[in-house]
Batch of 3 targets.
Target 1
Amino acid sequence: MKNYNELKETSKVIRQDIIKMLHESGSGHPGGSLSSTEIVTALFFKEMNIDPKDPNWEERDRFVLSKGHAAPVLYAALAEKGFFPKEELMKLRKTGSMLQGHPDKKGTPGVDMSTGSLGQGLSISNGMALSAKLDNKDYRVYTILGDGEIQEGMVWEAAMFSAHYKLDNLIAFLDHNGLQIDGKNEEVINVEPVDKKFEAFGWNVIKIDGHNFEEIFNAIDGGKETKGKPTIIIANTIKGKGVSFMEDEAGWHGKAPNDEEFKIALSELGGDK
């Protein structure tokens, strides 16, 4: 159990590792990895019931990174948690590495589901959550969706399913940073009012600052206390959070920093110069 200061330090390390592995690989997705860092940190280092020594423990809570391109934040958290050695992070996207560009449950300890084809993660999470109810298991399912992803119809079909089957053991986060690969959401396909949409689909909706640990945990508690319906936590975040030249810039959705940018980013994040 970590306090907020410890979690803030952990999130700083995870951000540093994201930048390091992306610089080493020369490719990847920094923007959405950095925007969801506090959410992932909160789940893996305080909230979820998981065991790095037994990644496939049947009673564990499940996590689905529906926006699979944000794999660097998941990998950094798994390594920091002890699922595999941190040296593996520097092999991101290398041939034969356990850490490919999108999560692979067959190759990476701690990954509960292979993701990357956007729109599928909520449906997968539904299956896990419904399975828990059918088997009378107490584990919970957590998933993270992206802004561009929720423009896909499969997400809303899954949202209807979640509500219909009263999956109150499912908590979804929307990493709501307002940007996607082609620019601002409202310029591509406007998703607002996203809160009203989920409410209309029968969900419990909570809106928070996605970089504030207290708000994150209060929202999770609110979701756990809600009975008979799933919960969506709309987390307002900043794409590229923590690196000045990446913040709120769609261009950093899927681009690795060069040598000079790497030095600046790592310095801003309190890492090695």
Target 2
Amino acid sequence: MDIAKALAVIDRLRFGAFPAERARTNAGTAGPGHRMAESETSDAFWEDDGTGGEATAEQYGCDRDGRGERLTERRGQPQAFRLYSVFERTTRGEDVAEPWASLGSHGPDVLLWKPDGSGRWTALGVSQWDGAPPFQLLAVVTDRDPP
């Protein structure tokens, strides 16, 4: 997906209604207070010698950063938000609000923009926990503060 289309998806997430119940959408998942789009998904690379997965992980990181640069032009500087503590808290049984609990199991960090006039946080990440493919580019919008 090119950057212009990805930004259009993010805009739809930012201004669309949140569903009352957790549900699968045509772009990803959504639930009370959040929407998540899976904008790209890689192959699994099960038969690869490791180089295909490494190259894809690097490319997905670059794609996230490219989209992030465009969002930064619109929204200002993001913060790098580490998700490891969120992952640990959920594995210990703590009730962490969505989408943060799910994001904690997707990857180590996200680029995170504070709410603007919409009152919603915007996050971009690469789903790659432990570097295991397949990789996904994720865009998340939520009205829930990070834990």
Target 3
Amino acid sequence: MRGHYEDLAAEYDEHWVYGPDYVPWMSARIAAALRLSSTDRIADVGCGTGLFAREVARSVRPRHHVLCVDPSEAMLRQIGAPPPDGLTQVLGSAEDIAEGRVRLPYERLDALWLKESVHHLADPGRTLRLLAGRLAPGGRMLVAMLPASIRYPLFEDALTRFEELQPDPEIVVRHLQDAGLDVELTHVEHELRVDRDTYFRMVRSRYMSLLSTFSDSELDKGIDEMREAHPEPVLVFPDRFAFILGVRRGEGR
């Protein structure tokens, strides 16, 4: 999977922006769910190219740098060298941070989020429990993930495989509860409008990690299926996310 993101890094932002309002919308939802303030010590775990961390830093203006944590050097390079004001790059996976193999500049975090990366964890229960242990009293952890089924205009085999591989948000709720956090599950939704040919190119480039499980010929067949099912010039579909918020008991700093 790391190789998938290494290959995708240079085009990642192009594939994930969708439209000019998408990143600000998602970043605002993350900041609101975590109740971020300028005094918080914050980490984006699995940040990719820092799309959302950059926007959060711009809006929250934290006194401490937002930590952009990712195991892919190629993805982190897209953030820039030196990184934009308010961001610090940390090379490492969620497991590296949780297990202490990679040290963070802050002993404790007031807020962290994992957006669409929890399905990459080999042992999500253990990793989330250890990440919860990095929170200060009153600290917050947000897992933002797609639900167990999606309504994207993908080909049928991709939608089926997604449902086979995607963890149920309720399982993540239980993991955070087992970690001793107070947990709340909500959902956010945004209507996406994407040019048909642009979306087909995104699929061909395997913009979702799910698509890396298909061969070139399987993708070609799937895109032919999509062309037949979606003749409209602009694809309109909902992007719905489960937001699982865990809060460590105790007063904050």
